[in-house]
From TrEMBL:
Key words of the record: Cytoplasm, Translation regulation
Protein name per the record: Ribosome hibernation promoting factor
Domain of life: Bacteria
Organism: Streptomyces werraensis
Cytoplasm recorded as keyword: yes
Gene for this chain: raiA
Subcellular location: Cytoplasm
The protein's role, per its UniProt record: Required for dimerization of active 70S ribosomes into 100S ribosomes in stationary phase; 100S ribosomes are translationally inactive and sometimes present during exponential growth.
Origin organism lineage: Bacteria, Bacillati, Actinomycetota, Actinomycetes, Kitasatosporales
Length: 230
């Protein structure tokens, strides 16, 4: 297997290609994932002078028989960006390796030990009846936002408010890749609508625009619970 290094709208010097080969140790990678089929490194440059501290971006894509593992990073020079991306790739490879190892080493749990290993499993009291109803009556109910929750969950509600200037779709895609998320919420500078870009397959992306329909709002009854129709 070879490492394919390519530039997007920028030239990749031979010195950097050699550095990639030294930094991404194929023998080490194949120990963590023996089914690796390809390893691609893409280098790009952001021309915006306001982003000089992260103008060089490196994206590493590892394809194997399992899920695709991708790591990207941006810095003031391509060598620093490669170092950061390589660290992320190594961490994700180890996580995937440990996950596979734990599945292989999993053992069957005796019936007597099930309540100790499986949270929320049904247990019986001295009379042979389920204790779930007894515990349910003892669990207090509290209000989180506009919702009533029993005990500690399993519902977790967290609200965040971000202040951000409207941006173009291209800028939103760039910001999403920088943070390493699969989606990014933004306000479209052209339509002024709340929008979401998200990763689909490989390098394909999708975008969802949210538009208020006054007719739907007027005809929507309060009992409907504010559900958005598909």
């Amino acid at each position: 297997m070879d490492i394919v290094v390519k530039g997007r709208k920028t030239e990749v010097p031979e010195r950097f290609r050699k550095h990639v080969a030294e930094k991404l140790n194929l023998e080490k990678i194949q120990k963590l994932d023996g089914k690796v089929m390809s390893l691609d490194v893409e280098v790009s440059k952001e021309p915006n002078p306001r982003q000089a501290d992260r103008c060089d971006r490196v994206e590493i894509t590892l394809r194997s028989r399992g899920p695709v593992i991708r790591a990207e990073a941006a810095a003031s020079d391509p060598y620093a960006a490669l170092d950061l991306a390589a660290e992320k790739l190594d961490a994700r490879l180890r996580k995937q390796h440990d996950k596979r190892f734990s599945r292989r080493g999993a053992r069957r749990i005796p019936a007597a030990e099930v309540p100790d290993h499986v949270p929320g499993v049904a247990t019986l009291n001295g009379a042979g009846a389920s204790t779930a109803r007894e515990e349910e009556q003892a669990v207090p109910t509290k209000k989180i936002g506009s919702l009533e929750v029993q005990g500690d969950g399993p519902l977790v509600v967290r609200e965040k408010t971000h202040v951000a200037a409207p941006m173009t779709l291209d800028q939103a895609l760039y910001e999403m890749e920088l943070v390493g998320h699969d989606f990014y919420l933004f306000v479209d500078s052209e339509t002024k609508e709340p929008s979401v870009v998200y990763r689909r397959h490989a390098y394909d992306y999708g975008v969802i625009h949210l538009r208020t329909d006054t007719m739907v709002t007027e005809n929507h009854s309060p009992e409907a619970g504010g559900t958005l129709g598909g």
